[in-house]
Fold this protein.
Amino acid sequence: MTSKYLYDQGWSEERARLAGIEAMWDVGTRDVLARHGAQPGAAALEVGAGGGSVVAWLAEQVGPRGRVLATDLDPRFVEPLASDVVEVRRADVVEDELPVGEFDVVHTRLVLEHLSGRDAALDRLVRALKPGGWLVVEDYDWTSFGFDPDGEVESRAANAVVALMTQAGFDATFGRRVVSELAARGLTDVHGEARALVIDSGHPGSAFFTLSFDQLAPATVQAGLLTDADVTAMRGRLQADDWHVFTPTVVAALGRKPGADPAE
Ligand SMILES: C[S@@+](CC[C@H](N)C(=O)[O-])C[C@H]1O[C@@H](n2cnc3c(N)ncnc32)[C@H](O)[C@@H]1O
């Protein structure tokens, strides 16, 4: 199996977990996309659209003359955004075809890092671009990640979650390699931009860390990576309001399909 995404869109708190991602990264994502193809009249593809905040923003940017195709393995949260401008499709980026040569900008955030089939997915995203169109791939490099204070409980719990995800195909340092992956696919103007935050337990982004742990904790126990006592201890730590988290670093890798500038 090439795609084994561990988080469940049907989990009662999943939309809140995705909102944590949006609270941390949407500002930077909008800035990057506004400089790389998200213009009035553009055709945009958002892959692994999740909660849909980027889709809603893209629809505003491209306007009524533009088009946004939003895909996800489970598109339940983006379906309400369907409109004359926004088309929503259920699609696995590793297995399912996407339109070829149609988009001025193709974006995906925190998706490819999860997929052992990420090479095939990246090839597909490149094929979806028009000549001159921009590919924007955002993924984490977890090297910067850590809690402060960073005791044994926090380290063990964080390592267990990453280990469980790694067993399912996750690459915790894909963000560090993703610029090279774009260059290897013959794109031009290839470069990267990176950003990280230090947030406290009251920041809306902290929901990503607390709810990711909540959702995967039972599976870490089942896999022998944590004990019930570890889970209880970590839940206690997360409920305290005395911690900061140094987030993983989000790397935005950017590159252009060789050929004409679609705006020209
Ligand atoms: C961590 S969430 C990120 C959501 C959104 N991109 C964001 O940054 O706010 C990953 C998303 O990728 C979707 N996903 C996972 N595997 C996928 C696949 N093989 N094809 C398409 N989408 C996938 C999930 O359903 C989920 O919505």
